[in-house]
Amino acid sequence: MNLSGMPQADLQSVNVTVEASGYYPALSTAHFIEHYAVAQEYASKSELLVEKLRYAQAEINQELANAKLTNGQTLSAAQAMFYERAVYSKAKASLLVSKLGSTHRDSATAQSQTAIDNYEYWKGQSINAMRQLQGLSPNITVELL
Asked: How many domains does the chain have?
């Protein structure tokens, strides 16, 4: 069993590889399910997971479009790890917002704050991974004077 409650054998049956442009690493729905605790109700919906991963991948790639991460070389292992974390975290945040809309109205109020907190957490994880990928400190803050 993994964090999503699915047996490991089932992960390969729902695994879809989301190819990248060649410069960035490919993504996997099985990795997403296993390492990001995707809820059981979404784990078997490969099309939905692929859609969320592609959308997150497009957003991250667009944010990185002007960044010079390497001089034409492939990404280092650390850069690939930060890229994957940025995409998977953004997809997880998006999946949590999807879940908000599917909850019952009577329990929506109680769950909405938890889901929003989780959304902010995963969004923050994505932003931190992006900063690390670009060689910036994830702890940079700005104060207005």
From this structure: 1
